[in-house]
């Protein structure tokens, strides 16, 4: 199930609970189900709310659940609004890109590295920078028709929830359960 900003929480919970109920195969045996819910970072809170409400409902009925959480990134094309800096928490910057023959390439940078109005940076010794700094948050690609398209990695959270334990998912992502 895909969770987007316009998704209704109660409807998604209802669908999730229906899928979690054991289905019957053609030979009459019960088959456990695994449901995968995915959401971009901007609606991750809604995804977690749906999962938590569904887990409480399963527990109320005396059922068991197993949860496996995954965080990854998907490469997605940026829209014009994204390129203008409409992404929450990000500001625009320009950087010379030597890989494209010296063309100027548009780069998104963290808002924390933006200068404040008085020109000073907000340096706090209590925090440590994680990973490489100065890396572009987006890349530009020239398409065959000559148009420049911009792509960026968008964080995506996927949660697998099941009525039975799944050792392969436990090994890959860790496990949470009510047992």
User: Nearest-angstrom radius of gyration?
Assistant: 22 Å
Low-confidence stretches: 86-120
- How many strand segments? 10
Mean pLDDT: 74
End-to-end distance, in Å?
A: 25 Å
- Tertiary shape: elongated
Structural class: alpha+beta
Relative helix content: 10-25%
Strand content: 25-35%
Number of helices: 4
Q: What kind of sheet is the major sheet?
A: 6 strands, mixed
SSE run: EHEEEHEHEEEEHE
Describe this structure in words.
With 179 residues, the protein is an alpha+beta fold. Helix content is 22%, strand content 34%. It is built from 4 helices and 10 strands, in the order βαβββαβαββββαβ. The strands form 3 sheets. Strands 1, 4, 5, 8, 9 and 10 form a 6-stranded mixed sheet that branches. A hairpin with a 7-residue loop joins β6 and β7. α1 packs across α2. The two termini are 25 Å apart.
How is this structure best summarized?
This protein is α+β, with helices and mostly antiparallel strands and 179 residues long. It contains four helices and ten strands; from the N terminus they run βαβββαβαββββαβ.
Task: Note the topology.
Layout: E1 2-3, H1 9-20, E2 23-24, E3 30-31, E4 34-40, H2 44-60, E5 66-77, H3 80-83, E6 90-96, E7 104-110, E8 138-142, E9 148-162, H4 167-173, E10 176-177
Parallel strand pairs: 1-4
Antiparallel strand pairs: 2-3, 4-9, 5-9, 5-10, 6-7, 8-9
Helix pairs in contact: 1-2
């Amino acid at each position: 199930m895909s969770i987007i900003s316009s998704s209704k929480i109660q409807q998604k919970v209802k669908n999730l609970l229906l899928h979690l109920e054991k289905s019957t195969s053609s030979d009459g045996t019960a088959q456990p189900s695994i449901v995968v819910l995915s959401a971009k970072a901007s609606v991750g809170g809604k995804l977690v709310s749906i999962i938590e409400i569904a887990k409480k409902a399963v527990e109320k009925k005396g059922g068991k659940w197993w949860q496996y959480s995954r965080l990854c990134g998907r490469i997605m094309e940026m829209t014009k609004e994204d390129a203008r800096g409409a992404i929450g928490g990000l500001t625009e910057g320009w950087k010379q890109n030597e890989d494209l023959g010296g063309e100027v390439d548009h780069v998104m940078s963290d808002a924390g590295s933006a200068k404040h109005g008085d020109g000073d940076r907000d340096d706090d010794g209590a925090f440590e920078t994680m990973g490489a700094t100065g890396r572009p948050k987006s890349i530009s690609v020239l398409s065959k028709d000559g148009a420049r398209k911009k792509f960026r990695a968008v964080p995506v959270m996927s949660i697998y929830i099941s009525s039975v334990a799944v050792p392969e998912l436990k090994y890959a992502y860790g496990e949470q359960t009510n047992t």
